[in-house]
Every structure is written in C-alpha cells, then in structure tokens.
TrEMBL record:
Keywords: Membrane, Transmembrane, Transmembrane helix. This is Cobalt transporter. The keyword Transmembrane applies. The chain crosses the membrane at residues 25-44. InterPro entries: CbtB_put. It comes from Streptomyces hiroshimensis. It comes from the Bacteria. It holds the Pfam family CbtB.
Length: 74
C-alpha cells in the first residue's frame, strides 16, 4: 500500500537549517574574542610588574596552562 512508504520517506527527510548571518554572529564573536584576550592575559602576563591582582593566587591557578602554552615562567 502507499501508506506504508510514507513514514520511511518522512524519516529520511533532511530538516531545514536556518542560516546565521554574519551580522547576527558578529557581537558574539567580538564578545568571545575579548573573553579569550582576557584569559590570555591572565595566563600569559598576570605576573610581576604587569600584575593587576596582588599575590600569587592567579599565577598559581593558571601555572600549568602557562607551561603548556610555552610562556616563560621559571
Ligand atoms: Zn612555572
């Protein structure tokens, strides 16, 4: 019968994906970029004379990442 073929055809149909325009994604890309730069600062330069937060706590938290990324440390 023709009704038995209809469910098989419906399950193999590809759902339509709405495209995301560059204008919609640009603010999120900027936000994530700034967040990554702040993270890069804390991993790579939050130490000594450039330190924003006194003490060694931030440096100790990101110490392994610092070595992993090849920043000079000790
Ligand atoms: Zn180190």
């Amino acid at each position: 019968m023709a009704q038995s073929a209809a469910p098989a055809a419906a399950s193999s149909a590809i759902p339509a994906v709405a495209p995301i325009s560059l204008k919609e994604i640009a603010p999120w890309a900027l936000f994530v970029g700034i967040l990554m730069l702040v993270l890069l600062y804390f991993v790579g330069a939050e130490q000594g004379a450039t330190s924003l937060i006194s003490g060694e706590n931030v440096h100790e938290w990101v110490h392994d990442g610092r070595h992993l990324l090849g920043f000079p440390c000790h």
